[in-house]
Amino acid sequence: MNKISRRTLLAAGTASVAMAAIPARSQGMGKLHEVRIRNFTFIPDMLEVRVGDTIRWTNEDSAPHDATALDRSWNSELLRRNQSSEVKVVQGMSPDYLCSIHPSMRASIKVLPA
Ligand SMILES: [Cu+2]
Fold this sequence. Notes:
This protein is of the alpha/beta class.
């Protein structure tokens, strides 16, 4: 690699880091909420969130699980053991969810006003 292309790459790298940081500061990143899935249970099974927050589900069971809105309007990825998936909280997000594989697994979120 010659000097010029190396310098260009470094400059590009710096610019992308700066661009990523600006919206984070001006808009706020929202809070990250963790939900663990253990023994066929969402923990916690009730979560208070705000628009712009992120919910991360992590499956600690050997059985696969997911988080799927009762009305199917949103869902996490299918989670195998120790896998995580994140969903961003949006306005009017459907509050009640289940595991689509084990529908008796139920939990809910409460979207608080911003
Ligand atoms: Cu399940």
